[in-house]
Amino acid sequence: MPAGESEAIRIRPLGPDDSLDELTELLHRAYQRLAVMGLNFTAVDQESSVTRGRAQGGTCLVAEVAGAMVGTVTYYPPGGKAYCAWYACGGVGHLGQFAVLPGCQRRGIGGQLLDAAEALAAHDGAKELALDTAEPAVHLTQYYEQRGYRLVGHEQWEGKTYRSVIMSKTLATQIPDG
Questions:
Q1: For the chain, what is the mean pLDDT?
Q2: CATH number at residue 93
Q3: In this structure, is residue 175 part of a structural domain?
Q4: What is the mean pLDDT of the segment spanning 76-101?
Q5: Domain total of the chain
Q6: Cβ-Cβ contacts under 8 Å for 120 (sequence gap 6 or more)
C-alpha cells in the first residue's frame, strides 16, 4: 500500500478456507525482528501444524487489508489451558500469536486486533485479559503498557532463552442501566 493511502482493515475469525501456511509465514515474518534479537519465540519458526494447534485452542482473529492477511491474534477464554499461575486465575483470559506484518505496522492494525480480542474477552465475562512477551523486548512491553496492560509477574518458559513478563489488563465492566 503506497504511503499516504489507507485501505479498510477487516478483522474476522480465521476461516476454514484460510491458509495455515500463509498464517504461519505471517508469524515468521512478524517475529523476525525478535529472532534477530536472539529471542526464540515459538512463532519465529513454528510449523503450520503448531500454528493450527495454537489457533484451534482459542479464537484466532486475522486482519485483512485489500484481501491480504496482514495480522493475527488468538484469544483464549478464561478457564482454558493455563500456562502460568496468572492465566489460571478465575476470570483471566489470555492472548497469543499476536503479529502484524512489518510493512503494515504503525497503521492501527494491531490496535484493532487487540480491540477485537478485548471485546471477545469482555463478552465472555473475563475480568482480565493477559499476555506474555519477552522481557528484553522493551518495545513490546511499552506498547502493551500504552494499551493499559500492567506487569503482574514473570515466567521462565521451558526451552526459552529469555524470561517473559506477564502483563494483564482489567477489562471495563458494564454498569447496568437505571
A1: 92
A2: 3.40.630.30
A3: no
A4: 91
A5: 1
A6: 59, 61, 75, 77, 93
Residue 33 burial (10 A CB sphere; 0-12, 13-18, 19+): middle
Q: For residue 30, give the C-alpha cell.
A: 512478524
CA diameter of the chain: 54
Q: What digits encode the pLDDT tens for the residues 100-121? A: 999 999 999 999 999 999 999 9
For residue 22, what are the domain limits? 9-170
For residue 125, is it within any domain?
Answer: yes
Cβ-count burial of 126 within 10 angstroms (0-12 exposed, 13-18 middle, 19+ buried)? buried
User: How high is the pLDDT of residue 112?
Assistant: 97
- Cα distance between residue 79 and residue 92, in whole Å: 8
pTM: 0.91
Cα 57 from Cα 51, distance rounded (Å): 10
Contact at 8 Å (CB) between 41 and 35? yes
Crossing angle of the two packed helices 20-30 and 48-56, in degrees rounded to 10? 100
Please report whether residue 2 resides in a domain.
no
